[in-house]
Structures are given as C-alpha cells and as structure tokens.
Specification:
This protein is of the alpha/beta class. It is built from 17 helices and 36 strands.
Length: 690
Amino acid sequence: MAENRILKHPVLSVPIHEDVTFYWNNKPLIAKKNEMISSALIANGIKIFGHHPKDNSAQGIFCANGQCAKCTVIANGLAVKSCMTAVQKNMIVESLEGFTDLPEITEKPQLGDIENIKTDVIIIGGGPAGLSAAIQIGKSNINTILIDDKNILGGKLVLQTHKFFGSEEDSYAGTRGIDIGKKLASEVKSLESISVWLNSTALFVFSDKKVGILKDGKYKIVEPKLILNAAGAREKFLRFNGNTLAGIYGAGAFQTLVNRDLVKASNRLFVIGGGNVGLIAAYHALQAGIDVVGLVEAMPKCGGYKVHDDKLKRLGVPIYTSHSILSANGKEEVESITITQIDEKFQPVPNTEKTFKCDTILVAVGLDPVNEFTFEAQKAGIPIYGSGDAEEIAEASSAMFNGKIVGLKIAKELGAKINNIPQEWYEKAEILKSHPGEIKPYITPTEKVGIYPVIHCLQEIPCNPCTTVCPTNSINIENNEIMGIPFYKGKCIGCNKCVLICPGLAITLVDYRKNPELPIVTVPYEISNIPVKVGDFVQAVDINGDFLSEVKIVNINDKQNRKTHLIKLEAVPEIASKIVSFSIQKKEVSLHEINVHKIDLDSDDSMICLCERVSTKEIKALIKQGITDLNQIKAITRAGMGPCGAKTCDTLIKQLLRQESILPQSIVQNTKRPIFIEVPLGKFAEGEKE
C-alpha cells in the first residue's frame, strides 16, 4: 500500500522514528512507533476502518480527538478509539466487522484499591488556556494537578504551524503556535507545585465533590478544592447528503494528521467553512503539499480574518462565498463534492450546482465548548472556573491571556497574595477575543524612491507585532490601539523584520534604491515544499489574488530563523506596491463540472446521528409531531444513545428545532450520561494492584 508520509515540510522538522510492524486484518503494515493507530492506517492508504452494522456504511476518522467513535477498531482483542490508541510492535488491529473471537480470560481479575488523592486545584486541559493558568497558579506554590488526554502538552497549539496574532507582549504574537506550546509547557514543567498527568482523561465530576480520572489506564479519584475547566471545544458536524462517507474530517483531525503526525491525509481537499479554522487549515494543507480545490462559505464574506482569506486567494485557492455544500459523492469514500450558490435565506439557487473532484472534505463550521464538566461541578457545589474555548470560543491568543487572568483569580481565591488585576487587563482580554472589524482602504506611500513597507493588512484585528519589531518605530497603529490598522510613517532601513514577523504575511518591502525603473519587491513565502529558484518567472498577484504580471525572482533569502523565506521580485513601478505574493496553485486544480450531480433538494437523507445512523428525515418527522423533548427523540430513534454520548447529534437536532421555529424554552434538554467518555467497566475496580 502507498505510503502517505510527509517527508519535507516548510515549517516542521521531520523527526526520525523507529519503524514497527503491526497487523491490519492479518496483513503486516509499517507504522511509526507510538503513533496513533488511525494515523498509521491512513499513512498506509487506509481510510476505511470498518463498516457500521446497521447500514454497512464506511467508518473512518472525523474528530481525531476522542470525542466521537467513528474510528473504533479492535486492537489486541479490545475495542478502542484508533485516534487515541498508540501502535505497538506486533499489535493485532482488526476492523469491527472482521472481529469474531472474544479474548479468553486466562486468569481471575484481581480487584485493587482505587487511589484517592487530594489537591488544591485540578486543571482539565493542557492547551493554551490551561497552561497559561497553570503558570500563574504554580508561581503561588499551590498544589495543582494538570491533566490532558494527549501524550504531549499544548492542546491545539501542537497543530498550529502559523504565526499568532495578538500582541508580542501578552500572547507571543509573531511566534508559531507549535513554538508557543513548547514554551508554555516548559514553564509549567519547571514549577514544583504542578503535577502534570498526560494520557489522562477526566471522566466525570461526581456529586460527592470528587473527580474520576483515567490516568495511563488506571482509574483514580481526585478531590480538589477548586476546578479549572480548560478542556477546549469539539467540532460541529454538518448535515448534507453523503455526510457519512469516509474522507470527511473535522479541521482538528486534518491538522492532527498533517501537522502533528506528518501524514498526508489527502491529495485533493475541499474545505467547508470560511472562519479562521477553515482558512488556516486550508493553508496548512498547502504547506503539506496538498491541493486545495476550493473553499465554500455560506455568508457573503468569510468570517475569519481577511489576511487569512487573502493569503489563500493569492496562492491560487478559489473561495466561494454565499455557497454551501449540497452533497459529498462516492461509494464508500469521498470522490467528489457538489456545491451550490445560496440565497439570503440560505436556500439553494437552482442551476448553480458545481461538482469538483476531491478525495477529502474538511468540515470547519464552528465549535461547541466542552462545558459538561462545568455544569456537573456547579451541581456538585465545587468552585469551578472556565477558560479558553471551554468558556467561550475565541482565538488561542485570547485563550492564553484569559487563562493568565483566571489563573491569578484562582490563586487569590486560594489564599495567595495577589494584587488586584488591573482593569486594563480585562479591557485587553475583551479586545483579544474581538471579531474582525472594519475593512479600510490602503495607506500606501506614493513616492517612488528609497525603500518602504507596503502594509496589506486592511482589517481591524487584534494584532500589533509589526509595530513592536520595527527598529526605527516607523510602523504604528491608528490611535495606538491594538485593533487599529497599522501604517508606515518614518524611515525604513530595509531590515525585513516586519515582513518576517507579520502573522498574516501581509507586509511587503518595495526598494527603489538600486534601480528606480525596476524596483525590487520583497514578499514572504512559507510554502517552500513547492520550491522556487532565482531566475524563475512567477505570476505576481494583488491582495485579491488577481494576476498583475509575470515577474522574475532575483534573490531568495531562506536563512531566516522564522522559517519564512524572503523572495525578491523584480517589477515595474506601476505594480510594485500592489504585489502581495505570487500564485503557486495551478488553475487546473480547481476546475469543476456543472450540474454533474443533480441533487434532490427535498431529500433528508443526511445523517444526524452517526453512531446510531439516524437520518434528518426521521428527526424532522418527530418534530412535526410536536416532540421537542430530546430524551423522547432519543428513546424513539436512539439518536444520542451511541458511544459518543450525543456530542455530535445534540447540536444538529437543536438546529432542526430552531428551523421549525421551536422556542428554546420549549426544548427539554438531553439527560447526559453519567460518564462523559466511554471506559471499560473493569477500570473502576482494578485500582492499583500489588
């Protein structure tokens, strides 16, 4: 089978891992030692991990975060989530439908005492918010257990190869997420009062004010004085025909494969959703050497930062606003996607269907907070704080700063001598989680002499590293506010620091000093796995990705420590200030066919509950009967009764209720099952054996 490994990446180093043999349905395959089973299978060209017993539909990964159960396989005789279980040498892995023999019990199970631990604080989640809070709590020498279900700290920071927004002082703006994660994790590990539990999952917050945790496969009970929920968010799913095909991933799953595990998860990708998550994931795909066929956004403009939108357009990725997906097409795996234009009521516009060949569809249509721990702690009467996406969905820069504030609050509540948190911190916290603001026109120097930066960042977003890095203080922000538009006024010395640090790759330098007739334009470039060389002619484009002219590369500086190459282009003065970058993806990648797949717009065959295979049609029929109790819907259809515990279908059913104009107060909420994550029952009895 073909190896889908990323062997060269413009930002990430490719580590050398020991190869191990494992067996998939009795066939030997090669994996990297300790990588997740799901990544090993996909690296070997296997997207289908089994078939559902109810309708024989193909099963594969969706979330790669342990939140759903689509990737379940049998490993050494036990059902496991392949995205959360590491490959071991000679491991026997089987698909569910091929598994027939139960393991023999050769010895009587030995019961052990469950370890009970007391601590001041439990932090659930080792991502940007949890780590930032832990640093503040640990500095006050407060006993804290920080748990995370992965084998490395950092949360989503581990997946982020792009440079961060915000401010350099407060949220490491201009530094890549992967590097921020390492810095925060290192600082946490240096604090003696912080105990870090990796490979550990919080299962439930019980009414006796104790938390059940599965640590390295051992069940433990922890009694905290206070809890911080920094568990992050889970991705929303989407209703469309064919939404059960293998090859439909959440953005986090896709980034986990390409950025954490260096597995080439796709050859031709189509993205659904124009928020920052979808835009950034599409850019990460290009860095992984994957063709991005297109991106659709239901709104008239993308909801993410304009610089992310612009970055894709100028690299050659088409963005279809006021469009949505009609269907994923294929037998078992995704073979193509059909999209359509939609009107102001989000209804398909007839005869606007377009079908594109692709093998993967990335769904990035929003996040739901993982807030169940908060609700249970409140019911149990345990003091609990929330931070990051578990509290409110926002950017990671916001999560870090808010985590810092919450950490100080917790330390103060537990008796540490903490000064009052300055009011301006709260004001900055609000700014960092702000939505993109107004788009303004260019402020471009008109003179054609000397050297100066051209700032192609035209939207108010919380970001200012270009102002802090300029050695001559020649870049400033309107009203000196982080949400203003940066502008140049002063004297540029051509140091390139602003070009290198800009998270949006939205600053270029125009240099007239050597030849006023052919100024040199310096542009940032981070897709070096698609190489260019001195002497090449490339297609220069403007901020919207529109072609300006064919220009010559005269110099490449690839020795910068930020892994951003500086490409120097020779251009005529008329276009020099308009050049933002050059296109790299050929137009043939995004060719489509019209009306290839005629879709029945009245069809409701999309799946609401992936675990129990409950369709939109079935749920709508019950709503039309007047049923608005989610527990009754569950009892009739089994929607929400599957392994994931309604983590996906709950949101989708509520969307249908809203579409039928059901008032929120009329909806009876689902009764959550008492354990949030599936665990073998024996784990609650084993304890620590002698």
